[in-house]
């Protein structure tokens, strides 16, 4: 009986953390936030600094011998994959989901030269530590750019690639003007729960807010209420610069593994759109067109378009997201 009560208390703790509507101040390490699965930490010596990467390594009850790595987007962390992890576990997959350096519970360095190559190397170092040499790889949003770079850098390790509404399907720096890291930082400092909510309503959820979205908004906006926020904002400014200056779009043709594109066609995410000319603003971030263009660029790729779905299919419409994903994984 005591064991059952303890299990129920643990479940309640996880549930309360991710269902609370109240916005709370969160420190840079999310130390008061409990992820839905056990968090492990990978020590990392990088750029002369001692860092740590948080990650989830969730083992299935009935393993099928396959490993899938989930890479989060810029406004997210590993916990955002909760429902996806549970479903993949049911089907026998071992799921690994890291918080990249600068995100979630991982270290937020005061100075770090962010590159997709560096983040790919960091991610591989976790897999090397776990003695994993073959994976399937799913990247969402910024994680899609990182997953592309990983697949290009470590083709022998990447068995299959899935890109879910990845950003970087166009080269933003040829469409709009550059903004310095200092300017990015000042912009990040202005973020509030209202600005984040308005952005998400516009690009994620088609102006319809549901309570199920609150936990993911609160994990992001809670940082803005804490004295640590300048550190968060600075790292966010650096990663925005990484996205803008390090396109992967020209290298899609070099991807070797079978690739699935899951594209919510209502998405209109485009970095730096507000700085583009008026005639270009309406032409940026057209995922109903970019998905098709990208599928043509990537050899051995399949496109699944989700009509009337925005930037976050695995949260907005999980059933429509998970079906093509699992079908592709099981081929």
Topology record:
Layout: H1 2-19, E1 39-46, E2 49-58, E3 67-71, H2 82-90, E4 94-98, H3 116-129, E5 135-140, H4 142-153, E6 158-164, H5 181-189, H6 193-203, H7 214-221, H8 229-245, E7 259-264, H9 278-281, H10 287-297, E8 301-306, H11 313-316, H12 318-329
Parallel strand pairs: 3-4, 3-5, 5-6, 6-7, 7-8
Antiparallel strand pairs: 1-2, 2-4
Question: Can you give a write-up of this model?
Answer:
The chain is an alpha/beta fold and 331 residues long. The protein has a single domain, classed as Alpha/Beta hydrolase fold, catalytic domain (Rossmann fold, 3-Layer(aba) Sandwich), CATH 3.40.50.1820. It is 39% helix and 16% strand. It is built from twelve helices and eight strands. The protein has helices at 2-19, 82-90, 116-129, 142-153, 181-189, 193-203, 214-221, 229-245, 278-281, 287-297, 313-316, 318-329, and strands spanning 39-46, 49-58, 67-71, 94-98, 135-140, 158-164, 259-264, 301-306. An eight-stranded mixed beta sheet has the order 1-2-4-3-5-6-7-8, with helices on both faces. Helix 5 (181-189) crosses helix 8 and helix 6 crosses helix 7 (214-221). Mean pLDDT is 93; it is low at 1-20. It holds the Pfam family Abhydrolase_1. Keywords: Hydrolase, Signal.
């Amino acid at each position: 009986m005591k064991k059952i009560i303890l299990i129920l208390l643990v479940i309640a703790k996880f549930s309360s953390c991710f269902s609370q509507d109240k916005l709370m101040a969160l420190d840079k390490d999310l130390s008061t936030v409990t992820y839905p699965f056990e968090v492990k930490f990978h020590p990392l010596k990088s750029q002369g600094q001692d860092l740590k990467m948080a990650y989830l390594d969730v083992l299935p009850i009935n393993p099928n011998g396959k490993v899938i790595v989930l890479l989060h987007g810029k406004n997210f962390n590993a916990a955002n994959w909760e429902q996806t992890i549970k479903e993949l576990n049911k089907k026998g997959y071992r799921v690994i989901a890291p918080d990249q350096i600068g995100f979630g519970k991982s270290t937020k360095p005061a100075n770090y030269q962010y590159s997709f190559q560096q983040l790919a190397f960091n991610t591989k170092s976790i897999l090397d530590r776990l003695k994993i040499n073959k994976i399937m790889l799913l990247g969402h949003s910024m994680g899609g750019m990182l997953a592309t770079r990983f697949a290009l850098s470590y083709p022998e390790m990447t068995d299959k690639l899935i890109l879910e509404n990845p950003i970087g399907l166009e080269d933003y720096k040829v469409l709009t003007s550059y903004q310095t890291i200092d300017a990015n930082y000042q912009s990040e400092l202005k973020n509030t729960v209202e600005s984040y909510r308005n952005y998400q309503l516009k690009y994620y959820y088609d102006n319809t807010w549901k309570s199920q979205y609150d936990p993911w908004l609160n994990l992001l906006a809670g940082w803005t209420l804490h004295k640590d926020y300048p550190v968060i904002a600075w790292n966010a400014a650096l990663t925005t610069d990484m996205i803008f200056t390090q396109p992967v779009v020209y290298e899609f043709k070099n991807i070797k593994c079978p690739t699935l594109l899951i594209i919510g066609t209502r998405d209109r995410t485009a970095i730096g759109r507000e700085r583009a000319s008026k005639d270009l603003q309406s032409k940026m971030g057209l995922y109903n067109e970019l998905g098709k263009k990208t599928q043509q660029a990537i050899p051995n790729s399949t496109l699944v378009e989700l009509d009337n779905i925005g930037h976050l299919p695995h949260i907005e419409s999980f059933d429509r997201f998970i079906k093509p994903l699992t079908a592709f994984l099981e081929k």
